Amino acid sequence: PDAxxxxxGAIVEVAPARSALMAQIAERIAGQGGAGLFIDYGHLxxxxxxTFQALRRHEREDVLANPGEADLTA
Length: 74
Fold this sequence. Notes:
alpha+beta, 14% strand
């Protein structure tokens, strides 16, 4: 998403380290040959919101509700 145009109070996920790492990997593959498979489980359309969540027993729940019993993802 375009963080500069996000509404006041919106939560926007920005990952410059991830972008830099992917650029380095692409540069190495281009220079040395090879291939890579990268899977991004993100949405097809940009959006505004929090991507940090907890999943427990196939249901979303508060990330602090059951420490050690839920899978955390972002």
